[in-house]
Amino acid sequence: MRIGIIGTGTVGQTLATKLISLGHEVTLGSRTKDNAAANDWAERSGPGGHAGTFADAAEFGELVINATSGTVSLSAVELAGPERLAGKTLIDVSNPLVFSPDGQVTLDPVNDDSVGERLQRALPDTKVVKTLNTVNNEVMVDPGRVPGPHQLFLAGQDDEAKAQVKALLVEFGWPAEDILDLGGIDAARAVEMLMPFWLRLMRHYGHTDFNYSIRTAG
Amino acid sequence: MRIGIIGTGTVGQTLATKLISLGHEVTLGSRTKDNAAANDWAERSGPGGHAGTFADAAEFGELVINATSGTVSLSAVELAGPERLAGKTLIDVSNPLVFSPDGQVTLDPVNDDSVGERLQRALPDTKVVKTLNTVNNEVMVDPGRVPGPHQLFLAGQDDEAKAQVKALLVEFGWPAEDILDLGGIDAARAVEMLMPFWLRLMRHYGHTDFNYSIRTAG
Asked: Any CB–CB contact under 8 A between B170 and chain A?
């Protein structure tokens, strides 16, 4: 599949490299043309890996991934061009983290809105699916780093798009039974609001190779 | 131990009944004198169970539990009287849920504040420990309802108070190794912000007998 990735940070590059290794073709899109990180990645990645702008990535992808910081995701998809994303599935893996000088990390938006919902409102002709934002980038593409069963979550309006994303997550190594559908795109609030807890756990364990396993009766 | 419980709802009554069964003496405190729920509970509970006002519960307890809704907890402890809580440990099990007409549930406070922090600021001479708010009331006092290991979390400024609360949680049946200390009372934000996710899981599973097990490498 041809996949466009909006955002050239660690998360974008990690997803891009995994997708290449699975035989997909990827355009890693940056805010500016001739972004060094994107070009370096493309050079390392062989014939299936390309670098371009947000718009290039959106145009290229049959499926597109938003891997920008959640606080700038809206402007990123505006730059990418809503028309280039129309009819496509957009996987949103972002978290809207705001780092304060006092060391506290907060979210914006939060509580009565989420990045997932904002993207869906800005892109009414695109099928936004929120997922993967609840784990570190290395765990995203290698769930076996964390022992035993542990879960990922999906939120989105379109069941076919969620099924498509689930299939891609299974390619990443996530067992289908560990991918929980939490409902419509408004469920993005719930998974984005896990971040403060995730950051506390990171501090507690001293690393990022952990994830949630939901234990349930019956 | 003599324990005061502020709040006569399901959570308060469940905790009160468990504490009586463990041999503690409990005053269940309500906003108004002669609260039917509190009086009925006290009658059912034998000589160790008493009913009274928030102030009676605060005065009675060597340790006190806030089991009111998080949106009214500040006014509840003001009614209880900060001077009656001075020098004591206050376990805060609340969540500040706001139920909207559109069916969405939000939190107030959220993100840059929490009920736990507000209580600690309002009660500078009290040792506030946030815990238990991440599970249903039945699981609080009977963790075996959920199979396998699963965790509880502590947040608070005072290590001795957290150790005291941990010991009480062990009496409830929680294995000591499954009680994670997430840090100061500002970590209350993280655990309160789990509620939207918890509510989504409740909808997904159709029941409340579930909890988080943190899987971690190494």
From this structure: no
Give the tens place of pLDDT for each residue, B14-45.
Answer: 999 999 999 999 999 999 988 999 999 999 99
pTM (whole model) above 0.80: yes
Residues 137-156 of B with CB under 8 A from A: 145-150
Q: Do B217 and A104 touch (CB under 8 A)?
A: no
Nearest to B209 among A106, A213, A217 (CB): A217
Domains in chain A (CATH in brackets) are 2-205 (3.40.50.720)
Contacts of B145 in chain A (CB under 8 A): 217
Sign of CA dihedral B139, B143, B144, B150: positive
Contact (Cβ atoms closer than 8 angstroms) between residue A209 and residue A136: yes
Contact A216 B194 (CB under 8 A): no
Q: How far apart are CA A100 and CA A102, in angstroms?
A: 5
Q: What ipTM did this prediction achieve?
A: 0.97
Contact A218 B212 (CB under 8 A): no
pLDDT in tens, A116-174: 999 999 999 999 999 999 999 999 999 999 999 999 999 999 999 999 999 999 999 99
A103 has a pLDDT exceeding 90: no
φ, ψ of residue B201 in degrees (nearest 5): -65, -40
CA B59 to chain centre: 18
CB burial class (10 A; 0-12, 13-18, 19+) of residue A70? buried
| Contact between A214 and B150 (Cβ < 8 Å) | no
